[in-house]
Amino acid sequence: MMRILGRIPEWLGLAVAPAKAGARAEARPPMEEIGTTGTPFFAGYLRDLGEYNPTLEGLSAFATYEKMRRSDAQVAATLMSMKLPIRSAEWTVTAPENATPVEQEAADLVRECLLEEIKFDSVVRNALLMLDFGCSAHADHWYVDGNRVRIKKLKPLLPVTFQRWITDPEENLVAIEQYGAMGDTYVTKLVEADRLALFTFEQEGANFAGRSMLRPVYQHWYIKSNLYKIDAISIERNGMGVPYAIMAENAKKEDRDTALAYVEKLSTHEKAGIVLPNGWVFGLKGVEGTLRDPKESIAHHNMMIAMAALAQFMMLGQSSGGNRALGESLGDFFYMGLQATAKAISEELSRTTIRRLCDYNFAGLTRYPKVVAQKIQGIEFGTLYAALKELAGAGLVQGDDELESYLRKTMGLPEAGKEPRVKAAPPAPEPEKMPRMNTDKQAEPTAKKLQASDAGLRRQAGTVGSEGARRAEKCLALAEIVGELDAGRDQIAAALRRARGRVQKEIVNKLVNTPVRNLHRVSIAPDAKLLAEVEAVLRGVYEFGVGQVAEERTRQAPATAGILRAADLRTPLGIYADGVVGEFTNNLNARAANVALDWMRRPGADTTKGETILAIEGELDGQSDKWMDGVASKGTNEAFAEGRADGYEEHKDEISSVIYSALLDLNTCEACAAADGDEGATPGDIADVPNPDCDGGDRCRCVHVYVFSDEVRQ
Predict the structure, then answer these.
(1) Rounded mean pLDDT of the chain?
(2) Which residue has the higher pLDDT, 450 or 103?
(3) Which of 229, 276, 393, 419 is deepest in the core (most CB within 10 A)?
(4) Where are the alpha helices (DSSP H) in 253-323?
(5) Which is nearest to 286 in space by CA: 234, 245, 246, 247?
(6) Segment 526-547 mean pLDDT
C-alpha cells in the first residue's frame, strides 16, 4: 500500500523534488485554484441544477415571486416580519479597535456619507429584496467635494432586470448584464462588479442569483391559492343550491328549452322570481352529507409559510395551541435568523461600498470601518427592569451617567439636563391653602396618596428633611435587603411557574371528570414537591432576616457589640410555605374552573375528554402569570418579617425602642406613610409588618427597625 501511495504524484504528473537530508521544507502553498463549484454558466446565463420546477427558473421565477408577494396576505406579512425589525434597527458605523487618527477619520467619513447624507433606510430596503427574489444589488455613484470623494447615491438595481452573470474562468463575478426599462425604451446595461454591492440570500457555490425565501413557500402558496378558488366556487354553487325543474307530462322540446333557460339563468337578487306552467315543479337542490371545509387546510399552509421564515409565533393567536413561553422561545430563534441576515448585509456593505469609499480617500489603509445593525430585537422594558434590579441587588451594576444615558435612549426619554437627578421636595402647602382644582371629593385622597408615594422615593434618595433616613434606619443594609427579597420572590415565582404545568394538569383532569354543577367543589391537595421548594427559599429569607438584626446591632454600636448568641427561635416556615402553595393552588383552581365551565357550556361542543383537557390547558397557558409574582412576594415578605421578629426576641433585652419604617418601599401608600416613623417600646406598640392596612396588601415591605440602648448617634 505504501508503495502505491508513493507513486500517486508520479501518476498525476507532479514533479516532486527529492528531499535533502537536514534541509528545511520551503513553505510555499500552491497558488492556482483547483476544483469547481459545479455551477453552470452558459454564455452568462446561470442555471440552477437543483431546481426541478421550470416555473421557478431564471426570470420566470422572478415573475412568480412577484405574484406571490403581491397577492397573498400571509406571504406579505411573513416578508414584512423579516424586514421591518432589520429596517428599524439602529445602524451605526464602528471604527477598528484602538483606531488610529486616520482610521477614525475614515469611520467618521463613512458615517457622514452613509447615515447622514443619503437615505440609508432605502439602501437596507433594497438589500432586503434578496429575501423576495434571492438577490439584490446597488451600484456606487460618486462625486468630488473638495479633497474628498463622497457617495452621491447607491442606485438600486432591481433583481427582475438581472439577465446574465459574467464570470471569469475561476468563477469570480466580473459584471451583471441588465435588461430593463430606461425612460421610454428597454436597454441592455453592463454593470461591473467593482461598482456593485451584491446581496445574495442562501448562495450555494457560484450561484450569485441565490435562492429566494419564497422558494420553499411556493408549494403551500400554490395549493392555498387553489383552495381559495375552490372555496369561492363552492360558496357560489352551493350557497343558494342548484336550481332544478320538473316538467309536466308530454312536455315539448320548446318546454324543455324554456325550463333549461330558467335554471341556467336564475340568480339571486331582490327581484328574483319565476312563473311556471301548470303541473311544473321548481326547486333548489343543496349538497347533502358532510362537506370538507378548506379553512383547516388553508390554516395549515399559512403556518407552513410562516415556518419557512421561522416566524411560527405569528400564528399562535390564530389557533387554540401555544402560550407565551412558547412564543418567546420561537421569537428568540426568529430574531437570531434576522441577526444573521443583517450581518450578511453589513458585511457586504463593508466589503464593497465602504472599502471603496475609504480607498478613494485614504492611502495605505489596511483596517476599515464597518456598518453594523444593533437592537434588532426590541427590548421589553419589564425584562430590562427586572434584569437591572437583579444585577443591582447582587452588587454587579451601579447607576452612573453612562447607564442612565443608555436607559434614556433605549426608552425614548429626553436626555438628562444639568439639574440633579433627585430634587428635594418643596414643602407641602397647608391643607386650607391647597388650591382646589375641582369639587370631586376623590381629589384630596388621591393627592395624599401621590404625596405619600413620592415620600417613599425621596426617603430612599435621602432628601427628606436634613437627615433622609432616620437614625437607626441608616444601619439598614438597604441594597442587600431589597436584593434578598427580590431574589426570594423570583425564586419562589420560578418554582410556581415550574409547578404550574403539573398542578394545572391535575386540576383540569379532575374538573373534566366532574359534573358541571359540582365544579366549584373541586380541589386538590397541595403539591408536596412545590411545598419543599418554597419552604427552602423561605428558610433562606428567614435566616437572612434574623442575621440582619444582629448586623444592625453591630453597626449601631460596634464598640460594645458582643458575640452572636444562640437562641431557640420559632420558625413557622411551614405555615408560610403552606400559605404560598395554598394561595397558588386555589388561584389556579379558580381560573381553571372558570375556563372549564365556559368551555363545557359552549354550544355544539363535540370533543373527547382528551381534546377538552388540551383545549382548557391551552387557554390557561395563554393567560398572564404575573399574579404568581404577587403570591411569591407575599411569602417572601412574611418570612423576612418573621426572621426580623425572631432577631428581636434574641436581642430584646438590649433594644430600647422600635421604629416603624417604610424606607424599603418606593411607592408608599397612605396607610404606611402615616405609620412611617412611629416609635414604641416594643413591636406591639406600633403597626404590624407587613402592614395589614397597606394598599399593596402582602406586597408591603415595611419593617420594624430596632434601636439598641447603646446606639452610637452621629
Answers:
(1) 77
(2) 103
(3) 393
(4) 253-265, 295-308
(5) 234
(6) 84
Of 128, 154, 131, nearest in space to 143 by CA: 154
Q: What is the pLDDT of residue 21?
A: 53
Strand partners, 192: 175
CA angle 639–644–648, rounded 5-degree value: 145
Neighbour-count burial of 389, counting CB atoms closer than 10 A to its CB (0-12 exposed, 13-18 middle, 19+ buried): middle
Which amino acid belongs to residue 427?
P
Q: How confident is the model at residue 352 (pLDDT cuts 50, 70, 90)?
A: very high
Which range scores top for mean pLDDT: 124-128, 165-169, 331-335, 397-401? Answer: 124-128
pLDDT of amino acid 234? 74
pLDDT the model gives residue 9: 47
Looking at residue 360, its pLDDT comes to 93
Query: What is the rounded CA–CA span in Å between residue 185 and residue 710?
Result: 98
- What is the amino acid identity at position 562? G
Query: Could you tell me the residue ranges of all domains in the chain?
Result: 379-416, 471-646
How far apart, in whole angstroms, are the C-alpha atoms of residue 401 and residue 603? 60
Contact (CB, 8 A) for 393 and 482: yes
Q: Is the pLDDT of residue 451 over 80?
A: no
Q: Do residues 537 and 488 lie in contact, with contact meaning Cβ atoms separated by under 8 Å?
A: yes
Max Cα–Cα distance, the chain, nearest Å: 126
What is the distance between the alpha carbons of residues 330 and 314, in angstroms, rounded to a whole number?
10
DSSP labels for 554-568?
A: HHH-TTT--PPPP--
8 A C-beta contact, residue 181 and residue 171? no
Residue appearing with cell numbers 421550470? 54
| Strand, helix or coil for residue 473 | helix
Q: What distance in Å separates the CA atoms of residue 640 and residue 549, rounded to the nearest whole number? A: 11
Q: With residue 188 as reference, give the H or E element that holds it.
A: strand 185-192
d(CA 2, CA 583): 78
> What pLDDT, on a 0 to 100 scale, did the predictor assign at position 394?
67
Q: What pLDDT sits at residue 269? A: 65
For residues 634 and 580, is the Cβ–Cβ distance under 8 A?
yes
Give the chain's length.
714
Could you give the CA distance from residue 551 to residue 440 in angstroms, rounded to a whole number?
A: 49
Taking residue 548's Cβ as centre, other Cβ atoms within 10 Å add up to 21
pLDDT exceeds cutoff 60 at 437:
no
